[in-house]
């Protein structure tokens, strides 16, 4: 699993499938394994980018609390590390709030 550096955190991510890029952002305290049922279906049409938010899964756990801005920066760091300029974004629960911040921070 590749690792992107974002500020004080290492963010683990994975890319599966082919087609247009789809950044998939999970909610609070859940890691990217929560996408296990959706990713195979989406991967038939998209290159799915899943990652573990800071503090969960394979990503590092720097001292918190964490802000939406930090977590949006983490998502953009994943995209930068993978050489991705643009992607569709899908978020569940808090992942949706992170997605909104990503849209505001994106160039």
Secondary structure elements and their pairing?
Layout: E1 3-6, E2 9-17, E3 20-25, H1 39-43, E4 46-51, H2 68-81, E5 88-91, H3 94-105
Parallel strand pairs: 3-4, 3-5
Antiparallel strand pairs: 1-2, 2-4
Helix pairs in contact: 2-3
Please describe what this structure looks like.
- It is a single chain.
- Helix 2 packs across helix 3.
- Strands 1-2-4-3-5 form a five-stranded mixed β-sheet.
- The protein is globular and about 40 Å long.
- The protein is α/β, with parallel strands linked by helices.
- It has helices at 39-43, 68-81, 94-105; strands spanning 3-6, 9-17, 20-25, 46-51, 88-91.
- The chain contains three helices and five strands; from the N terminus they run E-E-E-H-E-H-E-H.
Approximate shape:
globular
The average pLDDT value, as a whole number, equals: 95
Please provide the count of β strands.
5
Please trace the helix and strand order, writing H or E for each element.
EEEHEHEH
Number of helices: 3
Residue runs with pLDDT of under 50 for 5 or more positions: none
Distance between the termini: 26 Å
Strand content: 25-35%
Q: In what order do the strands lie side by side in the largest sheet?
A: 1-2-4-3-5
Largest beta-sheet details: 5 strands, mixed
Helix content: 25-40%
Radius of gyration: 12 Å
Helix and strand content put the structural class at alpha/beta
